[in-house]
Design a protein that fits this description.
Blueprint lengths: L1 H15 L5 E7 L4 H10 L3 E5 L4 E6 L1 H10 L3 E6 L2 E3 L4 H14 L4 H8 L27 H5 L15 E6 L38 E3 L14 H7 L5 H10 L16 E6 L6 E3 H13 L4 E4 L3 E2 L6 H12 L3 E5 L18 E2 L8 E7 L18 E4 L5 E3 L3 E3 L1 E5 L4 E4 L3 H18 L5 H10 L2 E2 L11 E2 L7
Parallel strand pairs: 6-8, 6-10, 7-8, 10-12, 12-14, 14-15
Antiparallel strand pairs: 1-3, 1-4, 2-3, 5-9, 11-13, 16-17, 18-19, 20-21
Helix pairs in contact: 1-3, 8-11, 9-10, 11-12
The protein binds calcium ion (3 copies).
One calcium ion binds next to loops.
């Protein structure tokens, strides 16, 4: 095992080529004096990433990194601190360049009126509000929630007591349809500057921002120009959160698959759509340590030459703790089309061969496979709604359409396996609140056993079916 890791570490040096300082992750056998000895031998500083994984971040150059991987006795492996990206919205990306070209001829002041105000970043975390009532006015427009039979589970307090961690671009924890369902860290006293529960994070009330290292995992939103020219997909994590657990019967908006689940905000991806192995691991470890039973991962990408061993080990730690890891299958590598088979071309983390990972393809309102959606007869387990999905976005808004510019003839919907994955995460929360004594494997089996076979997924997923909640108990 040790040699294998060293081989892979050696590959870094061959691939990197130049003596630039870069961030590496160093895995030791144990926490202790090894780290002090390591610094005195090799210089620099080690920043703790995972106590349980005995992982540290170390800034050095590639020659030094590969040397250490080969000769330091206490080092199990060294790997790059990889960049991890949000899955791109295929509908938005298809239009981005054309919109950018069109906008180049327009006055930004005019566009502000068209696209409205941008919510300010990091608002105060409001206390949980009292119980509201009233029908959810947009629920009938929410085809995804309706088609899989979600309302049949709602009489049973779907998701009650189950924490679902949204590892993503953040969440608008002030949103009128999410604020009541945010996870609340009851062991932490708000705003006293003290880590009351001693979990390593000061004043973490609804989660943590692992990208910026603060206690406000807000889904930072940018103006329309920055969105088009800067990349990323702000609002992504808030949209995902609404699919999982928007509040039901509060007289506002929509309702999630598991509207009694608690949403834990684990922001590790910036508004430009970018995170790191380090921030992902911290988010996953935090979710597991603070009671999440389900983690949603609508991010990742094509497998590179080198394994992200540190990320794999963090998902293995989640497995040991009995936590389900739901992963979007991916949105195509070669442009929109059907050459998106995860079996020969793995998507990470979706295709990792770990028993707690459930990978999800996207289907449309007609039970067709989304044109962009990855699939995999051996590696993708099921499909779920992921084309033109209506859900919450920052600023008390609701969208199934990211941008709609009629006079330019351009429309981009909320499309993606990113939207399919949280439907399944919500279903696991419901299954678990119905069956609190089940193991994670029993919960996965229950949901997969109840999928509805559809032609578009026959031979394209392990179950050949899409998410179906009508018989789920
Ligand atoms: Ca704390
Ligand atoms: Ca923040
Ligand atoms: Ca609602």
């Amino acid at each position: 095992m040790r040699n294998l890791f060293r081989m892979s570490a050696l590959c870094i040096s061959l691939a990197a080529g130049v003596a630039q300082a870069a961030e590496y992750l160093v895995r030791f056998d144990s926490i202790g004096q090894e780290q002090e000895r390591f610094i005195s031998n090799n210089g620099g500083t080690l920043t703790l990433v995972s106590r349980e994984g005995v992982l540290f971040k170390w800034v050095t150059n590639h020659e030094k990194a590969s040397e250490v991987a080969n000769w330091e006795p206490s080092v199990r492996y060294v790997q790059p601190n990889f960049t991890i990206r949000l899955l791109q919205n295929p509908s938005l990306e298809a239009n981005r360049e054309a919109i950018a070209n069109a906008l180049a001829f327009m006055d930004p002041m005019d566009m502000g009126d068209i696209f409205g105000e941008t919510p300010a970043d990091n608002p105060d975390i409001p206390p949980a509000p009292g119980r509201a009532s009233g029908a959810d006015p947009m629920l009938t427009d929410d085809w995804g929630i309706q088609s899989i039979g979600t309302p049949t589970t709602w009489t049973r307090n779907a998701g009650k007591g189950i924490i679902v961690a949204v590892t993503d671009s953040g969440v608008d924890y002030t949103h009128e349809d999410l604020v009541a369902n945010m996870w609340r860290n009851t062991k932490e006293i708000p705003d006293n500057g003290i880590d009351d529960d001693k979990n390593g994070y000061v004043d973490d009330i609804v989660g943590w921002d692992f990208a910026m290292d603060d206690n406000k995992p807000y889904d930072m939103t940018v103006d329309f120009f920055s969105l088009i020219f800067g990349g990323g997909n702000p609002g992504h994590g808030t949209h995902v959160s609404g699919v999982i657990g928007a509040t039901k019967d509060n007289g506002k908006g929509v309702a999630g698959v598991a509207p009694n689940a608690q949403i834990m905000g684990c922001r590790f991806i910036t508004e430009k759509g970018s995170g790191t192995t380090e921030s992902a691991i911290k988010a996953i470890d935090y979710a597991v340590a603070n009671g999440a039973k389900v983690i949603n991962a609508s991010w990742g990408g094509e497998k590179g030459d080198e394994d992200d061993t540190a990320l794999i080990e963090s998902i293995q730690r989640a497995e040991k703790a009995g936590v389900i890891f739901v992963a979007a299958a991916g949105n195509g590598r070669n442009g929109v089309g059907y050459d998106n088979d995860n079996d020969p071309k793995p998507s990470i983390p979706a295709t990792l061969n770990l028993p707690n990972i459930v990978s999800v393809a996207a289907i449309d309102v007609n039970d067709g496979l989304g044109a962009f959606s990855n699939f995999g007869n051996r590696t993708v387990r099921l499909g779920a709604p992921g084309v033109k999905i209506l859900s919450t976005v920052p600023g008390d808004r609701y969208q199934d359409t990211v941008i709609d510019i009629p006079f330019l003839g351009m429309t981009a919907h909320w499309d993606g396996t990113s939207m399919a994955s949280p439907h399944v995460a919500g279903a696991f929360a419901t299954a678990w609140s119905d069956n609190p004594t089940f193991t994670y494997q029993q919960i996965i089996d229950l949901v997969l056993k109840n999928t509805k076979p559809i032609a578009a997924l026959n031979g394209k997923t392990v179950t050949g079916g899409r998410l179906e909640l009508r018989q789920l108990r």
